[in-house]
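Example record for the data management plan.
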Amino acid sequence: MKEYDTYIFDLDGTLLDTLADLATSTNYALQQSGMPQRSIDEVRQFVGNGVRNLMRRAVPQGEENPLFEQAFAVFQQHYLEHGLDTTRPYPGIMQLLQTLKEHGKNVAVVSNKFQTATAQLCSHFFGSLVDVAIGERENVRRKPAPDTVLTALSEMKAEAQGAVYIGDSDVDIATARNCSLPCISVLWGFRDRDFLLKAGADTFVETPGQIFG
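Corresponding structural encoding:
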């Protein structure tokens, strides 16, 4: 695998296995509003475009449902309190990040998860191994717009030339394309190879160790 100066990672499905906690908070919010529960495989397909879109897909009739905002608020509060219950880095991720930092690489996380949760998760699991963590925030368009990636590059004072984007979804492929960055698609996340191929993926890794080393 080609070596880069800067490694920009998606969070959910790429660095962290967050699916169970997202599903639990989704179903808690649905239950509190008297709505039908969703399976973990359904939630797997709903993630990738931010938590509002996750709930838009999970709630019957989406935002047209009069209880949508209530359910979304319950989800946010529950996830802030329980987002670390079962979430863990994928096998090999901590070693990868440690190796990148030992080699003087810039490391960033960009996520469509809201900023508070993104910062909390990155601080808890990665500490100083991640230089910058950018989540959904006001005045910064979420992925696949290039804003979060460009913000991360700016905060690290890093050049786009020499950077690579790593993710697990079609949203990540589109984000890299919109930033004119090469994209590495991981196969341990929320989408499979066939799905990613149809979305335009051209570089795959099966383990974190294949990204660098």
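Summary line stored alongside the record: The chain has a mean pLDDT of 95.
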